[in-house]
Amino acid sequence: MWEQFYVAAENNFKAAIKYIGEHHLQGLFQNRIEDILCNCESSGWGFPDDMWEIYYEYSETEFRDI
Hints:
Layout: H1 3-22, H2 26-39, H3 47-58
Helix pairs in contact: 1-3
């Protein structure tokens, strides 16, 4: 994949995680977020690490129990 793909995916994930955390919607989206984080583990180029970093940076404390 091109770098643009990963940048776009990270930016979209960041926007979604930030919105979910700000609006306390974790209960509705926790399973999907777990799926996304698990599915990106097989990607290269540090992408999984970046996704986890975004998750921890923008999610609330109780949202971090994956």
